[in-house]
Amino acid sequence: MDDDDGADERYMELETLEAIFPEIQKHTPAPAMTTNLEFSLELPVHPANPVTVLFPAASDPANPLTTQDATTSAATAATAQAGDGPVDSHELVHLPAVLLRIALPPGYPAEQPPAVAITTTPPWLTPETVEKLERDGPRMWADAGRNLVAFDYIDHVQQAADAVFHMIDAAGTLRIDPSHKLAILDYDIQARRAAFARETFDCGVCLGEDA
């Protein structure tokens, strides 16, 4: 009986999420009484203001690419402005979306926390950022008294995405491994085009109505 109630809670939560986020993709065929109920959702990374993204040369020992070191980044930005460093800088409006995959185990929410996996294509988030986000799921579940937390967690990740996951350094720049440069620039271009196409369509409708 308890297992049935737990399963019902999982499905009810997922149904609510699907009503809010119709783009959710389910990965578990019903019923999932004894298995994880899994789904995924892509969250945009579209900060309010353009982000200055630096692609430091991979051979530059002063620019480790696995962490966001504010001091090093500030020095890198200053060097770039002086024209002495091999740093490529771009103003971006869109960064590759975050794919959030959540698994609700049979004991969720009363006994088991949600399992969370965070990925991006290309993998531009630092390992530390990914690990923290993935730990936040079980932490929020515990803080909520072992209650349903999927919506709150999705909202938490989206707010972090709006703040570029607090990866912007003291110099106001975001440093990303240069091996991801082409994919990231292409993503920004395609996202801008899609946004422009939507705006153009809306204006066309307005003009048609005025005529």
From TrEMBL:
It comes from the Eukaryota. Residues 62-87 are annotated as: Disordered. Coiled coil: none annotated. Residues 66-82 have a biased composition (Low complexity). SUPFAM superfamilies: UBC-like. It holds the Pfam family RWD. PROSITE patterns: RWD. Residues 12-164 form the RWD domain. Transmembrane segments: none annotated. InterPro entries: RWD_dom, UBQ-conjugating_enzyme/RWD. This is RWD domain-containing protein. It comes from Verticillium longisporum (Verticillium dahliae var. longisporum).
